[in-house]
What does this fold into?
Amino acid sequence: MGLADIQAAIAVAEVAAERAAGSVQLIAVSKVQPAERVLDVLNAGWRLFGENYVQEAAGKWPDWRGAFPDVAVHMIGPLQTNKAKQAVELFEAIHTLDRPSLATKLAGLAQARGTSPELFIQVNIGSEPQKAGVLPEGADEFIASCRGMDLPVVGLMCIPPEGETSMPHFTALGEIAARNGLSGLSMGMSGDFEAAIAAGATHVRVGSAIFGARAYA
Ligand SMILES: *Cc1c(COP(=O)(O)O)cnc(C)c1O
It folds into this structure.
């Protein structure tokens, strides 16, 4: 495994799904990875990364952006409202817009700054009690309310329930996106990105298959 292998696997999956080459964006999820592993991937030319924690991202990306100015970093972890201001300054996109209070906060920041990261709405596609995201049955209304606040919603994001086949959940997310006229689909991780591409993913979030297992302290 590694960056080149995942790029190759994505290209194969695009062909298998009869999708255009390059239609899937690979987000290299660098959370908790040692700096040298991330630098290897930066030096290999990769420029799109994902992070889960505002604090961690704030500690490393401002420096790396100096050396790699064309880098883009997407927030893919849960976002506390009190970290939203820092987040809009750090990230080109946020994949975890999951509740009205955060939408209101992001809309206020967008108004004040005159710009906003691109936003994906996280859907709790398996309706799991403990999981973040709007419930599938509430998604249409939440999407409409975010649009009503002029937020730049570009797509939907999901994390299927652990231990279940991902495909039906990916398909369900695609249906919600389609009926709401959203083209972005952020779905698929190391274990299921090929299935996600078959189901229409535009952004896959792959961490351990590129960088190796995360060593949590
Ligand atoms: C950590 C994480 C990933 C990457 O997971 P891997 O299994 O290492 O590919 C993708 N998406 C989200 C939301 C994550 O938190």
Residues 29, 31, 52, 76-77, 159, 189-190, 205-209 surround pyridoxal-5'-phosphate (CB under 6 Å). Residues 3-211 form a domain with the TIM Barrel fold (CATH 3.20.20.10). The radius of gyration is 17 Å.
